[in-house]
Design brief:
417 residues; alpha+beta; 5-stranded antiparallel β-sheet; 20 strands
């Protein structure tokens, strides 16, 4: 194993930041080195330690992306991305296939050079720095473990590249194995581990040198649902204990809601919305976000009345709904009404709400802890509601008539265009 210095490429001869180097082709060796978090410029001399300090809400910005653009021929993969990740937080980049989220992660990791824009890490411009010199830990979906190395050797690799003393390496590997719950697995080979255990080894290797930033590229995609949910919580708890800043890429909406301090929703190479999980879910910025995050009932209508307190919207079917707390809009403008399936409740004939609808149950779907009803509304259109399933209550049947209602502040308004 060559533990000598990694060539960082020729230095740009122009008057640029000394941390920058000219972009060059990324080879397999660079990818392997970066996946193990090797930073040839040095690194932390301490093993990962639990942080006991309480972070204030206004955390300093660790990662900053400014105007990042990237094209492949005629395809714009990224279109002027601006993004900031506060120190100690998990920010998830969420989007469908082809939205640009993986390309953005590659730019941060150094596997792709942007056509324009800058990447800053802790105030240092690293736009064209090599992957190995960034000091970033990375966890891939396919784990990227060395099959010929035992667990301890895989985790020790980035420390050996830093030429730390054997006693220090042994101590740090042992402590990191304990952090990820793999103490006693030091001598096993990757092929002797389950998928979840391999993922823990990959995570341990990425954090053993205590990077400032951890990148995770759909790391749980190959795991079954139960194990995936378990690993999500493990990573979240570990990140909190160590205080590591993380950039997480996924197409799984539930995963993003569980893990994140903030979510950036991408589509077509652009960021549609950035916010806390509850804000993105409850107050989507547009129809795409409303439709992509979770399940939504989205109705097209025109503003019939507008005030600072509420909007009254009339659908093409003639139904009128009230949305409280929505921003005033001109009369007659087309808008979309977004209603989450859990918002409506079943009403008796005597009950009243801001909004009331009557319909016939067209379909019933049992999903374990809940039942989803598809309701064909009397005025036209359909609505999906999701209610908890209680074993002592018989579910409603197809053909039954329902009267449902919801408060005006549960109806969110987005622009239709």
């Amino acid at each position: 194993m060559n533990s000598g210095p990694v060539n960082s490429g020729p230095v740009n001869s122009g008057p640029v930041n000394s941390d920058q180097v000219t972009p060059g082709p990324v080879n397999l060796a660079q990818v392997k080195v970066a996946s193990t978090g090797v930073d040839v410029s040095g690194g932390s001399a301490e093993a990962p330690q639990e942080r006991t300090d309480k972070r204030v809400p206004a955390a300093p910005i660790l990662l900053s992306l400014k105007g990042i653009a990237k094209t492949y021929g005629a395809v714009s993969a990224l279109t002027g991305i601006d993004l900031e990740v506060p120190d100690g937080q998990i920010l998830t980049i969420l989007g469908p296939s082809g939205s640009g989220k993986t390309t953005l992660l590659k730019v941060v990791a150094g596997f792709e050079a942007p056509d324009s824009g800058d990447v800053e890490l802790a105030g240092r411009v690293i736009t064209y720095a090599t992957p190995a010199s960034r000091g970033i830990g990375m966890v891939f979906q396919n784990y990227a473990l060395f099959p010929h190395m035992r667990v301890a050797e895989n985790i020790a690799f980035p420390l050996q590249m830093r030429r730390l003393a054997r006693s220090e390496i042994r101590d740090r590997v042992g402590r990191t194995l304990s952090l990820v719950g793999l103490a006693g697995y030091e001598s096993r080979y990757p092929r002797q581990l389950s998928g979840g255990q391999q993922q823990r080894v990959a995570l341990a290797r990425a954090i053993v040198f205590e990077p400032r930033l951890l990148l995770l590229d759909e790391p749980f995609g190959a795991l079954d649902r139960k194990l995936r949910e378990h690993m999500q919580l493990e990573v979240k708890h570990l990140q909190r204990r160590l205080g590591i800043t993380a950039l997480f890429v996924t197409h799984d909406q539930e995963e993003a809601l569980v893990l994140s301090d903030r979510i950036a929703v991408m589509n077509g190479g652009s960021i549609e919305q950035i916010g806390a999980p509850a804000d993105v879910y409850s107050r989507p910025a547009n129809r795409f976000v409303a439709d992509f995050i979770g399940q939504s009932n989205i109705y097209r209508g025109k503003v019939a009345a507008s005030s600072p307190e509420a909007l009254t919207v009339t659908l093409s079917s003639g139904q009128t709904f009230v949305a409280r707390g929505a921003s005033p809009r001109p009369i007659g403008v087309e808008v979309g009404l977004v209603l989450r399936p859990e918002a409506p409740t079943r009403l008796t004939d005597q009950d009243s709400r801001d909004n009331v609808a009557v319909g016939c149950i067209a379909d019933v779907v049992y999903v374990g802890d809940a039942i989803k009803y598809s309701i064909r509304l009397d005025g036209g259109g359909e609505m999906v509601v999701r209610w908890p399933f209680y074993r002592n209550e018989a579910p409603l049947g197809v053909g039954e008539t329902l009267r449902i209602g919801w408060a005006g502040d549960l109806l969110h308004v987005v622009d239709w265009t």
